[in-house]
Every structure is written in structure tokens, then in C-alpha cells.
Amino acid sequence: MTIQDDAERRDLSSGDRMPGGLAPVRGFFEAHRSISVIVGMALVGLALPLVVMLPPFSTFQAGAAWMNNFTLAGVYILLALGLNIVVGLAGLLDLGYAAFFAIGSYTYAFGASPFSGLHIPFWPMLLIGALMAAIFGVLLGAPTLRLRGDYLAIVTLGFGEIVPIVFKNSDTYTRGTNGISSLYPPDLLGYRFSTIEILPFYIVMLLLVTLAMILIYRLQESRLGRSWMAIREDELAAASNGINTVTTKLLAFALGASTAGLAGVFSSAKLTFTGPDQFLFTVSFTVLAMVVLGGMGNIWGVALGAFILYMIQSVLLKGLNQFFDAVPVPILSDIDFVQYQFLLYGLALVSMMLLRPEGLFPSKRRRRELHTAAPGDDAAATPAQEAGGALQ
Amino acid sequence: MTAQSTQPAAQRLTGGATTAERRDDLVLAAVGISKQFGGLAALRNVDLQIPAGGIVSLIGPNGAGKTTFFNIVAGIFEPTRGTIRVDGTPLIGPPLRAWLEPIIWVGPALLIVLIGWLLNLATGTPTAPQGRPQTAAEAVSGGAVWFEIGILVGLGVLIISLLLAIIRPPWYRRAIGRLGIFKSAQPHHMVRAGIGRTFQNIRLFQNMTALENVQVGMHLKLESTPVDALISSRRQEREEEASRVRAGELMRMVGLPGREDELARNLPYGDQRRLELARALANDPKLLLLDEPTAGMNPNETAEMTALIGRLRRELGVGILLIEHDMHVVMGISDRITVLDHGEQIAEGTPEEIRRNPKVIEAYLGAPE
Q1: Chain B: closest CA distance from residue A173 (Å)
Q2: Which residues of A touch B219 (CB under 8 A)?
Q3: What is the architecture, at CATH level 2, of domain B1-95+185-194+285-369?
Q4: CA atoms within 13 A on the CB side of B255
């Protein structure tokens, strides 16, 4: 146990204090998070288009379709990164996260569509969408901050239902169930993005995800990140150390929401459409499942979890359908696999909680939290022993 | 009540010019604190003062209200009556008309909507086109324009003031205070005023390292904002480094050198108590609230902890309010002792006075039949 602890301790002491340890390369990347994120995302960004040209993938669907999927997966990665702030770092269970996605989306629809008559360029709209979502994050957070755990989850669930329904029912302003269509796509220096050419969207998505990851890493390792963790660990103790729990939790809500707003603006600009059915509870649930499966609190893990789940949902299950349409197997051919995706999520989550509760790619902290019960028990036993000693 | 009259009159904080100077040395002045939990009076009219650098102990049988008093000073409970000054600043007082605060911001918003509505009535009703739903542009141009503007501005005022009421920036709090609306301090306000505390059952951040625990304790000493963190500014980098160094110093001071990177939960029990003390000291408090700092310790550890507390007082000049059951510790270290029983303050005095006080003996041993 002590050997393992030592190893973990070495892992945790981040590279900035002992950069020349056993693995200098790793030390460098731990000390320079931003560079490591940029390098990592650049490698992934280059590798993905190349990999899908190779046989097993290229036979599955065309390269452009893959790129389209990757780009939309990016939207979910952004969402998962944002929810990770709220759930993974600050420990506030938010079941209505899709609401902020919707707010970002509709903000773009109001800002750049023939329907509203406005045409604000895409780039400032990214900021405006994030800001709008952040404001609503604060407004939702404010009345719910006194609630904890289950109660907070239920209130956020309600909020997540209210927002799409408001968008759906205020016909005059949102065209109701029809949604707002033919939004203006982004343009950059005279170049106009089009729905046919997927590569520019892919690059923008890569940049957005990279930026979000760098910023969230920085937040996580700052005073604010420590405050979030402290609140997650023990709210009363956090308050007794001078942390204003209200504003700190609000910031978690606001920053998480603003990431979703960003994702919303991008997704509606990419799809040139936004409608209330894109933001149902299933979106909130899917993103939460991505965060949990990927490994709460670990930024790369969450991103990877989101990517994998999105690919399963949008490519693998459809692929299975096509496959069994072509190859008649008695029962399997009759099943619509896409219909069963939530059954699969449920099964995945249950087996995850039983076998690997910390997620596929956990943060070191979470892994310890869930797997070193023994030392914790020791610590709990000590007072009793000590008290016994005091009595003698 | 009679026990209080043994105190010198100048320390009674009854107001007036003669006590003004004394009040400045007091790091804590709690006057007439009462706390009612439904029908149960947990505390009745308790007074307590701690001079800068003094150690005052609060003792009493179980259920006497010691921890309730503690939690009131720490800002966790609001007292039913009474006032608390920390280092001369009034922080907790009777909650005055707290219900007025929402009216201040709902009022103007409603007023603007009302004016919009009246203007709308004056300029004619909107013409809704038949057959198809109105578009946003038509709604604005169709005569309902004043109403729309009124609602939009009113909503804006409402949202801004709601955000203000939630975030409560200092200038807003000052303005509200000037209106005579007073909201009792919350724990972090008490910390800002100079109070640090430890808990009876240790409440460390179990899954954070020892160093991070102390860094959290330093929260109010650090000034970098979230924006600093986002752009990874010089200030942020420098401050983080400085906070690590300072946290290391504090850990050495309480006797935990070289344990920085250990998880709080993996520390032995005695060390966890020390770490909690280091965390409480990280904010440079003027007053430390220690809730049974030697609970569950063996005689050796108790002696070490007592020595440490004495050293903190000498070296840092921090005032200490101590709850403790171990009479050796209490009698050995306290300047003054206050005794509570069933929420009543039954005695106050030096350790020697308390030892001989018949009321205290009665409370602890029972009245002779």
C-alpha cells in the first residue's frame, strides 16, 4: 500500500516542481499544460482525417461523412467539458444542461437569421452566445444554490424541461416546433462557410475544443478550481475558510453554461437550423453519461468519453442497422439499434458503476477517492484507538 | 447573571466613551447573545470578550450550548438576539428589515413596466394581424411599442438587480447598509474579518493534498481573479508559487514538514488536527476558534498540542477561543474561562476563580441533596 501511495504521490506532485523526474517528457507536458493540449489536439486533428481513409473505416462510410460526425462530436465534447466543470469539479449535479445548449443555439438564431432580420457575424456571436448562456446559468443557479444533491438535480431537471418548452410555445418569437431555419453560416475574411464543405467547420471545432480545454485546465489549477474542489469535498469547511460558496458555485454554473452556449452557437451555425427538439432531456442525459463514462474531473478523459459515446451513437449503431439490413440474421435484422441506444447507455453506466466507478479515464484524484477505501477506514479507526489510549 | 457582575465595569461594553479604547483591543466582543431553536433556548444572554492575543476557554457540561455559541461566532447560525464585533467591526446584529431588500429592486422594475403600460394605453392598442402569428418585428412596430420597451427595460432592471443581490459587490452592500437594511454575516464574512476555526470532528478536504488544504485556507489572501487564471497572468503564476511557499512554512510551523503532497485523508489523526490548524492559520486570523483541539488524543499528543497552541499565541499574537473538555488543558492555558450550563452563562473569571466557584462545581458534579 505504501509503495502504491508513493507512486501516486509522485504522480500528483505536478511537473512544475520536479520536471526532471523519471520521465522528463512527461514532466515537461505536465508543467506546460497549454502546450501539451495544443500538441495533443493537433495530433488528433491530423490523425482523424487520415485514419478514416484507411480500409476498415473507409468502407464504413465516406470520408466527408466521417468528418461531419467528428465535427458534431466536437459539439458534444464541448458540452461534456462544460458539464464537467459543474459536475466533476464543483460536484453539483446538473440534469438540465441542455437548456444552456438551447440558449446558445437560439441566441445565434436570433442574431444571424433572416427570421430576426439581423446578421451579426459568427465570431462575435460565439462570445454573445456564451455570455447569454452564462447569464442564464447565474439566474438558474441563484435560487437553487441552497439546495444540494438530489434537490439540486431535480430543480435543474425542471429548468432543462422549461427552456425548450418555452422556445417551443412562444410561436411569435421562435416559430415554435418548426424551429428557425436558414441561419447564416459563418464567414471569415470573405470566405463563406458552406454546409457542403465540412473541413472549415472541422478546423474551427478543433480550435474551439483546444481553447476550451486549455482554459478549463487553467481554471482547474487556479484558486477558483481549488475552491470548487473544496466545496465538493466539504461545503461548510470551505465556507469556514473564507470561500464565498454562493459566488463560487455560481461561477461554476456560469462557466459550465457558457461552454454549452459556445457549443450551441457552433452547432446551430453548422446545421443552419435550430429547433426545440434538439434540446430534449436526452441531450442532458447523454452529456452526463459522457462525463461519467469518460471519468469525472479529468479533462482529457471527459473529452474522449464524449467522443467515443457520440461515435457509438451516431455511427456504430446506424452502421449495425445497415449491416443487418444487408446481412439477414433472424432477430438482429429486425432490431433498430438506434432505438436502443439508451438501453445501451443504461447498461454501460450500470456496469461502469460496478466495475470501474471512476470512469474510463479517471483523474488521479477520483481514482484514489474510489479505490483507496482502506486508508480512509484506517483514519476513521484512529480516533477510537487514540481515545482508547487516552483512557488508559 | 450574578457572576457577570464580578467583571470589571469597563469591560462590560455597555457603550460610552470610557469603554471605547478598551473595545479596540478586543478581538472579539459578543454582547447579549441569545439563540432560540424553536421553543428551546440554546443560549441566553451570553457575553464574551477576548483581548488581542488572549486565550479564553468556553467550558460546560454536554449540551450547555458551547458549540452553538461557536457556530454563531463563526457565522453559521444567526443569533436570535445580540451583537458581535470582531476587531471592532460590527458583524452580526439583529436582522433588520431584511424583507426590504427585494422591494428595492422589484419596485423600480414594476414601476417601469407600469409606465410602459400607461403610455401604451395613451398611444392606442396594438393591431395584431389576423390569421397568422405576429412576428417579432410587427409586435414592436404595431403600437405596443411602449409596452414592449417598458417590459424589456423592466426585465433588464430586474435581471441586473437580481444579479447584484446575488453577487453583492462591496459598493452594493455599502449602499444597502446605508439604507438600514442589515443582513447577518455569513461564514466567509467572519473569516474576512479575521476569524479562523477548526472543527470538533476534523473537516479537512479529504481528497486534496495537505498543501492544497492549506492553500484553500489562504483563499482570502490571494487576489488573482478567474480572468487571471484564464489568461495565466504573471500575477497568477507568482501568487500560486508564493502560496505554495507560504503553505509549506505554515505546515512546518505546526510540525508537519515534508508532508505537503500527502492526501489529507492519509495523514494520521494527530497530524490531521495539526493540518486543520495550519489551514485555519493560513488566512492570518486575529482570532482562532478551536473546537476541542485535543479530542481523541493521547496524553502525549495532548501535551504537544497544548504547547503548540501556546506557541501560536506567543509568536503570532492570535487570540484564541477554546472549547475543551480536558480540564488540565483548560486550566493550564486559559487567561479567562467562561462556563455555560443549559445556555446560561453561570461563571466567568480566571482559572483559579473558576476552580473555586461553587456554581461551576454544582453544574459539573450536581447539587448536593
Answers
A1: 6
A2: 223, 226-227, 241-243
A3: 3-Layer(aba) Sandwich (3.40)
A4: 15
Written as nine digits, the cell of A147 is: 439546495
C-alpha cell at position A100: 444552456
Query: Do residues B32 and B45 touch, judged by C-beta distance below 8 A?
Result: yes
Q: Where does chain B hold its CATH 3.40.50.300 domain(s)? A: 1-95+185-194+285-369
pLDDT digits (tens, 9 = 90+) for B269-316: 888 999 999 999 998 898 999 988 888 888 888 888 899 988 888 888
ipTM of the complex: 0.75
State the cell numbers at B106.
422589484
What's the CA gap between B23 and B11, in Å, rounded? Answer: 8
Within 8 A of A389 by CB-CB distance, chain B residues are 298
Domain boundaries, chain A: 10-51, 52-371
**Cα→Cα distances B207→A17, A142, A373, B68, B197, Å:** 20, 28, 11, 28, 20
Contact A172 B302 (CB under 8 A): no
CATH for A52-371, options being 3.30.110, 1.10.3470, 1.10.287, 1.20.120: 1.10.3470
Is residue B202 within 8 Å of residue B264, measured between CB atoms? no
Q: Does B212 touch chain A (CB under 8 A)?
A: yes
Residues of B in contact with A251 (CB under 8 A): 226
Distance of CA A20 to the CA centre of its chain: 33
Place of cell 501568487: B239
What global pTM score does this model have?
A: 0.77
